[in-house]
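hey so i finally got around to running both of the ones u sent me last week. sorry it took forever, my laptop kept dying halfway thru and i had to restart like 3 times lol. anyway pasting them below in the order u listed, first the sequence line then the structure token line for each. didnt double check formatting much so if smth looks off just lmk and ill redo it

first one:
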Amino acid sequence: MGDVLVAQGLCRSFPSGEGRALAVREASLRVGEGELVAVLGRSGAGKSSLLLLCGGIDLPDAGRAWVAGQEVTAMRGAARDGFLRRTVGWVFQSAGLLPLLTAVENVSLTLRLLGRSEAEASAAARRALDAVGLSERTEHRGEELSGGEQQRVAVVRALVKAPALLLADEPTAQLDSETARSVLALLRHAAASGTAVLLATHDGAAAGEADRVLVMEDGCLSEG
């Protein structure tokens, strides 16, 4: 099992008053193919900042990160955007669906952005939604879905392109316990299918679903 995500010595600070606050302090981690790793910590510990660095959305002040063998911290512009679009899937605390698009349109848009035809993207989106028990909700707009349904669609949207890496930032924080379990089951299934999954959470029960748990406190990452 090879490493999909490798991060070494990541540091990130932000302006704070007259100085700078260090959000991530020399964080290093690895996530292998088919592995689900949780980063457990309270709100404000630096988990979201860490995921943004690992996923190439933000750049570190120091340190390096590789995804699927490519150094994302060295990429810039269109080359970085295209690589991340193909390789990394994201799920956030808020589902972030386009409210006037149907569930199938929200999911198929991911594939359209990768150059798939409308028919091919729509068919793949329907299959993916069917597989998670949402076949009867495919034509409902995002605004017509419950919060739990929206989050499940968001996970499907992230996974339909079969990304090498899935980054999930507090995906169960706004869900009831039963719906949270269904979302975590989707993440476990993604890992079982070969995707490397990095889950940021403050919930010990959610972290308990992981293969490994890392603890983040005041920007510092350690083994759980």
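and the second one:
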Amino acid sequence: MQDFFWQNFMLSFLYEDKNRVCIFIDAGNLYHLVLKKININNLEFDFEGLAQWLVNNRTLVDNGKRYYSGSVREKTNDLKSKQALAKQNKLFTQLKKQGWEIKTSKLRFRKEKIIIDQRVTDYKRLLKKGIKEIEYERWREKGIDVKLATDLIVGAVDNKYDTAIVVSSDSDLVPAIDWIRKRKKRRVEYIGFSIADLANKNNPTRPSQTIISYSDIQRVLIVTDIKKFIKSS
């Protein structure tokens, strides 16, 4: 693996003439691809520490720490949703005190269905038991990628930053990334992850090769890098 400390150190020399940075974190993407897989929650993670590490010796612009998240809604007589909302409010309060700009989009509750076929492990055993489909409920995040992409473009047009540090592996951001690089000559620094899933070894997180191909700087963090930002209890 690369020596990320050395790489981080070299960034200040490579781009000393273009060193105004803005950080864009897709919270849902980070949680599902990284934090959930190593069994920690958002309140246990030091986002401010990560931000300062990413910035290093460069200049963080005003309102340059941006956190994009679906907003939890409380369901009537649902203790789980009430607890989730309380945790999110606590996290948002902490981040705001540290100067983070928080952008939210509503999480929508919907029912989804899994059809039992050859794509499902042990599907033959399930079919023999008469189980042909499984229906479940989940929160779905809507519009976060659009808000992040819009802010990337507006910030470039308004000359708010020289380098956008993008902490997301959502390939839907590629058109915006491509536009700010070609049309506004902004640099894009992609932060990806290579993380094993503790609950499912067949479901590891890998960096987005698509975003890598459209970015100027690529840094792929592994578990040991992430552990530096887990808060001590």
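quick thing i noticed on the 2nd:
The chain has one domain: 4-107+141-227.
anyway thats it, ttyl
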